[in-house]
Design goal:
Layout: E1 3-7, E2 10-13, H1 15-20, E3 24-30, E4 41-44, E5 47-54, E6 61-62, E7 67-70, E8 77-87, H2 101-128, H3 141-171, H4 179-184, H5 197-204, E9 218-219, H6 228-231, E10 235-238, E11 244-248, E12 251-255, E13 259-262, H7 270-274, E14 279-284, H8 291-296, H9 304-308, H10 312-315, E15 316-326, H11 330-343, E16 346-356, E17 375-383, E18 406-409
Parallel strand pairs: 2-18, 9-10, 14-15, 16-18
Antiparallel strand pairs: 1-2, 3-8, 4-5, 5-6, 5-8, 7-8, 10-13, 11-12, 15-17, 16-17
GO molecular function: catalytic activity, acting on a nucleic acid; nucleic acid binding; S-adenosylmethionine-dependent methyltransferase activity
Organism: Equus caballus
Pfam families: MT-A70
Length: 426
């Protein structure tokens, strides 16, 4: 985790730095081209590729001539290129709040004015029939619960974030927004259809069921070409020391070294279980049902019953830490605490908050906005020892996890990209 500052309230993170420290280095062989002295520079959606030359497998990259070596017995030559990919920094250029406090205040005043006008109209109408009633604003239970929760954590969010933001401004990691920058800033143009993984999973549901042999783990080898059918509902591993690139539905994806993934519908988890591996940390970001998801039709959501069916007890190592991202809807928060974790025999140990800020240290939404808040929650729990797998080392003592810590960071402008949790605080 790229921690810029750590104080008692929590951490100020550099999400972009964390991604780029993964070192996406792709080794490729090419026939010599005319302009081999010039490094190439292209864009792949959210990743930016800077192609540099390397002497053999040396870690020192040199933007000059490439190393040539025999390609075959006939004496043909090839060049070894190391392509270094970095994340597009402009996707973290959040210079202004999504809704500024001034606009938020203006909306509030407009709503209050409209309410006042409505009151006048209603009172005039009621007086004509000899009755006069006082207008009563009624909130539903969900709204009342949300207001109560916000009141409870508001001071924690405001005070803790302010301390971390001040440190970020002092160190130069955050920069006050100049008036000139404010006027000149333009919205970021994002590529369309940058990720089709949800469509791939939906497509996989309609394919014939595969047998156990066909679902065996696929290990990516050198120059291994894979198709969409190859990766459906099976674990894909990159056990090499370098990044691998695969193309799915016309989009390029980078698989970091020593990593693996399972691309499937939530109902097809047995390939992961068949690997017989357990995990010390499991992070879950469920597609919660909400009005925004319904309107955008961006992806399908999971019902509470479907989320409960995720086989966490079979995937969890002894004392596994389970982390679930939760929206600000109290219904979802109660479900995780009162139903989901107990069904997995997971004991709640802490509740943390991700606070989203701009590059100048402002909240991305007004803190007291009734619609969207500048924070999200995550619930941390540990699998109870009695249901964890055996062979636990009794001498290993788990450090206590502090409650109500803040993770403050500039959010990625791509949809639903959460900040990194890997690092020294887990």
């Amino acid at each position: 985790m790229s921690v810029v500052h750590q104080l008692s309230p929590g951490w100020l993170l550099d999400h972009l730095s964390f991604i780029n420290k993964i070192n996406y280095h792709l080794h490729q062989q090419h026939k010599p081209c005319c302009s081999k002295n010039e490094p190439t520079f292209v864009h792949f959606d959210s990743l930016q590729m800077d192609s540099v030359s390397s002497f053999g497998t040396s870690a020192t990259f040199i933007a000059s001539d490439s190393t040539t070596k025999p390609d075959n017995d006939a004496g043909g030559n090839c060049e070894m290129f190391v392509q270094k990919y970095v994340f597009r920094p402009e996707l973290f250029d959040v210079t202004k709040p999504y809704i500024t406090p001034a606009i938020h205040k203006e909306c509030q005043q407009r709503n209050e004015k409209e309410d006042l006008m409505n009151d006048v109209k209603k009172e005039n109408f009621i007086s004509t029939i000899g009755k006069k009633r006082k207008r009563c604003v009624v909130f539903n239970q969900g709204e009342l619960d949300a207001m109560e929760y916000h009141t409870k954590i508001r001071g924690l969010i405001l005070d803790g974030s302010s301390q971390l933001i001040q440190e970020g401004l002092k160190s130069g990691f955050l920069h006050p927004l100049l008036e000139k920058q404010d006027k000149c800033s333009e919205p970021i143009t994002l590529p369309l259809d940058t990720c089709n993984l949800a469509e791939l999973c939906e497509m996989a549901k309609h394919l014939p069921s595969l047998n156990e042999v066909e679902l065996q783990t696929l290990q990516l080898m050198e120059d291994h070409m894979v198709t969409e059918q190859d990766v459906f509902s099976r674990v894909v591993e990159n056990n090499s020391s370098f990044t691998k690139m695969i193309t799915l539905m016309g989009q390029k994806y980078l698989l970091p070294p020593q990593s693996s993934f399972l691309l499937s519908d939530i109902s097809c988890m047995h390939p992961l279980l068949n690997c017989r591996k357990t995990y010390d940390v499991i992070v879950i970001d469920p597609p919660w049902q909400n009005k925004s998801v319904k309107r955008s039709n961006r992806y399908s959501y999971l019902s509470p019953l479907q989320i409960k069916q995720i086989p966490i007890p079979k995937l969890a190592a002894p004392n596994c830490l389970v982390i679930t991202w939760v929206t600000n809807r109290q219904k979802h928060l109660r479900f995780v605490k009162e139903e989901l974790y107990p069904s997995w025999s997971v004991e709640i140990v802490a509740e943390w908050h991700w606070v989203k800020i701009t590059n100048s240290g402002e909240f991305v939404f007004p803190l007291d906005s009734p619609h969207k808040k500048p924070y999200e929650g995550l619930i941390l729990g540990r699998v109870r020892e009695e249901i964890a797998l055996p062979l636990r080392n009794a001498d290993v003592k788990m450090l206590p996890i502090p409650d109500h810590k803040l993770i403050v960071s500039v959010p990625c402008t791509l949809h639903s990209h959460k900040p990194p949790l890997a690092g020294r605080f887990l």
